[in-house]
Structure formats: C-alpha cells, structure tokens
TrEMBL record:
InterPro entries hit by this protein: AraC_XylS_family_regulators, Homeodomain-like_sf, HTH_AraC
SUPFAM superfamilies (UniProt xref): Homeodomain-like (SSF46689)
Entry keyword set: DNA-binding, Transcription, Transcription regulation
The protein's name: HTH araC/xylS-type domain-containing protein
HTH araC/xylS-type domain residues: 151-248
GO molecular function: DNA-binding transcription factor activity; sequence-specific DNA binding
Amino acid sequence: MMRNQYVLWPDMVLFYGAMPKEIARHHHPVIQLIIGTEKPFLKKAPDGSWQSCRSLLVAPNVTHECDAAEQKIFSLSIDPESELGAFLIQNDLADRDQLQFTETALDYFDFERVEELIRSEAYHELYHYCLAFFQPDGVPPVHAEKEERIETVKHYIKEHLDQRITSSTLCELVFLSESRLLHLFKQEMGLPIRNYILWVRLTKALEMILAGESLTRAAHDAGFFDSSHMSRTFVRQLGINPAEIVKNSKFIQVSVLEQA
C-alpha cells in the first residue's frame, strides 16, 4: 500500500493519499485543487449543509470546509503568484472563488498513472502532467538554460537561511537593481524571490525534521523565529503541522524538488 505522499516543487505542492480526519473550516494563501480519486467527498455549503462533490478548486484566502476522511484524495496547493497561479486567477477563478470541474474534465486524470509516476520518482513528468490539466493548449515556458546570476542568488539564499535575507543584499551580490533582479528571478523561477525564500525555509526544515532533528533546531536553522512560527507557516502553506509529520513519519513520504 502506498504511503501518503507530499511532493514539493517551488510553485506547487501535491498531497496524494488518505486524510485521517475531516478538514476543518479554514483558509490559506494558496490556490487549492482537491479531487476525490475514487469517490466524491463532502464540502460544506454557505447554508451549512454538506454537499457531495468530486472536485473543488478554491481561490486564495477563501474559507472552506471539506470532509474526505479516510478516502484517497489528490490535492494540489498552487502559489497564486506563480505563472500557473496567475493563469488560474485570471481564467478559472476570474469571476468566482470556488469551482467544481465537470466529470468530463476530470477524465483527464489517470490516477494509476499518477501513482506510477510517484513510485518511479518521475517528478518532472508528474509536474507537467498536473500542469497540462489546467493549460492543455500551452503550459508556461520552461527555461532550459540557467541564468548564472539567479543561480548565485539561489545558492546564497540556501547558505544563509539562518540569517535575515534582504533584497538589497541580493542585489549587491549580483550587481543588479532591485526591479531588474525581481523581474529576472520571477522570469527564471516562475515565482517571486520572497516566495522562493519561504519555500527554501520550509523544505530545509522539512528535511531536518525527517532526519530526526528537533522542531526547535529545524526552526532555527531554517530561519524561522521559533518552532511555533514554523508550525503556523507549515499549516498555512502545506496544510500539515510538522508535529504530525514527526508522529506519522512512517506513513508519510516527502519528496522535495528544486526545479519542475
């Protein structure tokens, strides 16, 4: 039996597995797609009643509540400031804060294939498979050649996570104006620098936690104020408390990817 999977790309997080309990009323800063892979799940309507649905796309910071306890779900959390996130806000979520896809649209997903891609660690292919669901006629461009100045910035960020990282420091590092650096970074990476720094902090902490380090040590080395700050950020960005990862580490597999 496949363990619950978390796959983390810089602009998107995939959870694939079974939730142990219903998802309480909450909101988060990401765009979220939830699909019941084998059967519909329940979502709470504005009047308080529960409605059955197979999928739900939710805009950032929109309060929602779902019950998919003990059933397998496919859940994507997408950075709204990424290229894909901006596309969804301008198109699918342009005039609404929630959307249910038709069964015809959901026929795109072959979850046996998704599981095979996860098992074989074909994460690049899995990323583009997810992307193509939203943009079948043209996905955002992939930059094959690495921009040396952006690589320098990324390396600096990773080596100085336990410090305060400012845009002025990064600009001095690569001799670029702030506006030029911010533009070039988003063009190359698909998301803003501040979002990338947060992603690196989260993944650094996650790797340390999975390696057996304490939450306090992981929070410090990854640049969070303390373990409480780290825990709040985990819940807000990933939908999971790091203490739950520690508690259920043998049931969860986490894969972190630097690039799509």
